[in-house]
Amino acid sequence: IFEKRDQESLSPKLPSFFASGQSKTFGSWVFHKIPDDDFLGMISSAQNVYFGYPKDNSAKILQIIGKNDVLLNPDDTVGRTISEMVDKAGVAVVSQNSQANDLYDFLYTPSILSNRLSLRNLSFVEYSFEILKDGIYKPVLERYKLEEFGLSTRSVSLTLDGEPVEWFSEEVTDSYIRFGRQSFKKGKHVVKIALNSKDLVREYKIEGEGQFTEEEASGKNYLSIFNKSQQDIFASFPVSSFDPMSSYIIQFGYQQIYGNNAQVLMSQGTSQTLVKSIIERLPNYPEWNYFSFYFDPVKTQSTLSVKLAAPWTKDPLGTKVRYDDLSVHKVFKNDLILVEEKNVTEISSPKVRFEKKSPVMYEAEVSGTKDPHILVFSENYSPIWVISLQDSSGGELQLKPLHFSANLYANAWYIEGAPENYRVRIYYKRQTLFNIGVFLTVVSGLAVVALTWKRFLKNSH
């Protein structure tokens, strides 16, 4: 990891444990070495193989499968022809998170009132998914900040297609919770989990000169802001326990009594810098209305405030707005993935030692092979990457490994019939053609020079 310390950055700071690791410093630049056990080499062997569905979300599966496991492209025509590999492959299904879907629909569609003039129910999350075939699956739930939503890492109570169920955890890591075996029938399913997220706003402070009063009417307490000054005034509510890695939903009721349209300002910043700011301008409704919107912060250490405004106006009467029921909650974006439990470990996983000869050529020694097996080459997939196999004495093996894509970007070869120990050369074919072209150009140039020199000697005599 390259840490550039000679410039200010909004990026989050590296965790403190990196300071105790192996690193090299060049002036203000620091290069941190990741332990070898935490990553794979350019050439590795696959242990388990999975197909991911739906394809558009399958990248999320890479975070829960083992580092020696391979995610196959379900649309890869070559991979689909390898019946033995397909038969041994498991299936991983990414579910749709109702709260996350609503968040992204809000953020990535044009601003319209119809998705703001309502309250959203944050007391539960629904996961919808489709199982392609009957089988036993293990649910895997992303762990991030689970406890803040009232969930336990030991077990989760939920409903599956309307029926109450409890899932008990089998494995808990920093990243996810893997639950015990569950039987699913082919078809569409819905998992509903009750949540208990905390409201993150309490007290407020006044910004600007105006009248801020807490009034009561019809059995309700609300905040009334009256502004006759020549500038906007705010009731500013700090968001407690602000986490820039989370997304937030802001909900409130309001009533426009008179004057300029009410506004709500989201302000994220540090003591020196305004990092992000958005303004929601509210419709001028004289009756009570509810309003909600999402805020996706910049991922940096900072603070966040919600500012309820009474904007200034040229009207001598000023602006008066009432606000009520302000709440700020985190959005529950955690992924739920269903991983099929089947015997996917039959594919041999030999040991691989590789050496980089050049940017376009790698060589490796493969040992402990049992038929069949898969080698993964972690370069962007291209059919021009070519593999050749030799036995221990260097003799060419007359095998034709099947080349397909893996892990959404890499190259993979399905190899069958290889000896227990053999050698591999992977090279970029276009570079070979380039080298041949250079060789022919040099030879042609030398021939022209030799012919010219011969004519020169002949003419000189």
Summarize the structure.
The protein has 461 residues and is mainly beta. Helices cover 11% and strands 44% of the residues.
CATH fold-level name of the largest domain: Jelly Rolls
- Supply the number of structural domains: 3
Give the overall shape, derived from the CA principal axes: extended
Q: Give the CATH class of the largest domain.
A: Mainly Beta
Q: Distance between the terminal alpha carbons, to the nearest Å? A: 69 Å
The secondary-structure class comes to mainly beta
Largest sheet: 12 strands, mixed
Number of strands: 33
Q: Tell me the Rg in angstroms.
A: 31 Å
Keywords: Membrane, Transmembrane, Transmembrane helix
Transmembrane segments: 433-453
List keywords for this structure.
461 residues, mainly beta, Jelly Rolls, 3 domains, 12-stranded mixed beta sheet, 5-stranded antiparallel beta sheet, 4 helices, 44% strand, membrane, transmembrane, transmembrane helix
Topology of helices and strands:
Blueprint: E1 2-4, E2 23-26, E3 29-32, E4 43-45, E5 49-53, E6 70-72, H1 77-81, H2 83-88, E7 90-94, E8 96-97, H3 98-107, E9 124-131, E10 135-142, E11 155-160, E12 163-172, E13 176-179, E14 182-184, E15 187-194, E16 205-207, E17 211-217, E18 220-227, E19 233-238, E20 248-258, E21 263-269, E22 274-281, E23 289-295, E24 303-310, E25 319-330, E26 336-340, E27 351-358, E28 361-367, E29 373-377, E30 385-390, E31 402-406, E32 410-415, E33 422-428, H4 429-460
Parallel strand pairs: 5-6, 5-7
Antiparallel strand pairs: 1-3, 2-3, 4-29, 7-26, 8-9, 9-15, 10-13, 10-14, 10-26, 11-12, 11-15, 12-13, 16-19, 17-18, 18-25, 19-24, 20-23, 20-25, 21-22, 21-24, 27-28, 28-33, 29-32, 30-33, 31-32
